[in-house]
Design goal:
Length: 420
């Protein structure tokens, strides 16, 4: 196979590693400095890689290709994020364990339809309100497990699966092949949550009394129709046109939605701005990683679907699931002499080695829940919960008290059932 672009020097992957480590560590140890300067940091790392490709490799076309992919990605993510902010759920009363479990199940479904960032933003405040008299750290953890991560497994509305769709993975492909492991994982997590919440409710109900039977209200429900229209464009419209249609629809919905609805949601463009800059850096610095993985994936010793499941998952948990997904997808294609930049190669790979893509997809989406830094919405949920004055687990408490003991046994079960 003739490669479309020149082979980069392995040293050129250092900015990618540096950026991911910075994204992982800086918000934890230098939060104020990070929020002031993250745009400059991401742009600087990307500039190093882009300069190398343009000046040293004379491959500006490769940079332009990555730029179009980034633009398409951020338009889709931004449109669903902004439109979800135009829906406000007002909840009253107090939820029983059964109600809470049903709420999380609905959140998992909405995570597929709105993207995990949009669903997390829409539902975290109602979740806090429902449990305001007995909110515990595990409520934050399980919300992140289900809504912010497991909820993004089936449809490519947000990262990481949106990245696959934009390069040629069919829209419904993952849903058709991952619904069973998704159901097993979601069911197991919800059962464990019910046990946690039942114990919490039993202790708290002595002090807060029975739940009240007040009605829920939904403002801005017309935006559900808007999201359905954007989803139809994402599925049916060709590249280029779909981004245009989605942008026009999202802008129209933003201006037609009463601003007080977004005010009730405490909406801000700040999270979207941060996501846009972070992924600007990721798309820029990821170029040599993908190009190198195409040619040298076999050197890593990755052969089996089980290996792709665990290695993709490990990188997703430690750094971020979107670059992990693209990196190992490029590697899996490279093992067979195919390129991630060629839609025909992706089609052949899916037809012959689809189980590898299933493993990579599940590893990226599931394992992002293991840490706060594994997926963008995780930190968003934590920040909103802390702003609301409720208890949230600390960085290591989240990992060792909740994520590892709850999720790892379930992930092992998935590996045994589907990749053994």
């Amino acid at each position: 196979m003739a490669n479309l672009y020149p082979e980069p020097n392995p040293i050129s992957m250092i900015p990618f590693a540096g950026l991911l480590l910075t994204i992982a560590i800086a918000p934890l140890i230098l939060p104020e400095q990070w929020h002031k300067h993250y745009a400059k940091v991401c742009a600087a790392f990307a500039a190093i890689t882009v300069s190398y490709y343009v000046i040293a490799l004379h491959s500006g076309a490769r940079v332009v290709h990555a730029g179009f992919e980034y633009a398409s990605f951020i338009i889709v993510v931004g449109a669903f994020f902004v439109t979800a902010a135009g829906i406000h759920l007002q909840v009253r009363g107090r939820a029983t364990p059964a109600h809470n479990t049903g709420f999380l199940l609905a959140g998992a479904l909405l995570g597929n339809l709105f993207g995990t960032a949009g669903a997390s933003m829409l539902l975290i405040r109602p979740w806090i309100a429902l449990n305001r008299n007995r909110f515990a750290p595990f409520h934050t953890a399980f919300f992140i497990f289900v809504v912010s991560n497991i909820g993004g497994v089936l449809l490519p509305i947000g990262p990481p699966l949106l990245l696959g769709y934009l390069i040629g993975v069919p829209f419904w492909w993952v849903a058709q092949r991952c619904w069973l492991p998704w159901s097993v994982t979601l069911g197991a997590v919800l059962i464990i949550f019910y046990v946690f919440d039942r114990l919490n409710y039993r202790n708290a109900s002595r002090h807060i009394g029975p739940p009240l039977g007040e009605k829920w209200q939904c403002a801005g429900s017309g935006n559900f129709v808007v999201m359905a229209a954007m989803l139809a464009c994402l599925i049916l419209a060709p590249a280029g046109w779909r981004e245009l249609f989605i942008t026009v629809i999202a802008i129209a919905a933003y201006w037609l939605t009463p601003s007080e609805i977004r005010q009730r949601n405490e909406f801000s463009f700040a999270p979207l701005k941060e996501i846009a800059w972070i992924f600007f850096g990721i798309f820029g610095t990821l170029i040599p990683v993908l190009d190198y993985m195409k040619r040298h994936a076999g050197d890593l010793g990755l052969q089996s679907d089980l290996q792709f499941y665990w290695t993709t998952g490990a990188l997703s948990a430690l750094l971020d699931n979107a670059p992990a997904y693209l990196t190992f997808l490029a590697g899996a294609l490279g093992l067979h002499g195919w390129s991630i930049d060629d839609a025909q190669h992706i089609s052949e790979f899916i037809a012959r080695h689809g189980r590898s893509l299933i493993a990579i997809s599940l590893g990226a989406t599931f394992f992002g829940a293991l840490t706060y830094i594994g997926n963008g919405p995780n930190l968003l949920v934590k920040a909103i919960a802390e702003h609301a004055g409720v208890k949230t687990p600390g960085f290591f408490g989240y990992i060792f008290k909740f994520a590892l003991p709850v999720l790892i046994p379930i992930f092992v079960l998935v590996a045994l059932l589907f990749f053994r």
